[in-house]
Specification:
single chain, 140 residues, mainly alpha, Arc Repressor Mutant, subunit A, two-stranded antiparallel sheet, 6 helices, globular
Amino acid sequence: MEEMVSIFHALSKSLERIHKESCEEVSVVQSSILYEISLLRAPSMQEVAEEIGMDITTFSRQIATLVKKEFVFRKPHEGDRRIHIVSLTEKGEVTVESINVIIAAKLENAFVSMNDFERAIVTQSMHVLNQKLVAQSYGK
């Protein structure tokens, strides 16, 4: 089990470094928020906060910063003005795409020395591990 914990921490640090190096205009947390908004269709602030596992107060501060930097629009829900809907601006969309391209290139560079079989095994294993971790966090 110690080996798994060691691998977990090493992998976390490596992925965090890749993410950080990919973000010029935003923090890693803000990048994650932008990415989640890009995946969802007209999400509420609460939905995005829950997706990334952040409390709504901290999330609200991050959204305020992203609105100020012109990466995100925030508007009240038509049916319930207590709910705010968030969406990416054009600048936000371009930033998400740019970050995704850089991350993909860095990951591709890590995979370049692997043969097709190794790449498939690592990719499939990471997918299965993620599914199990998500299911575990939702108590399934």
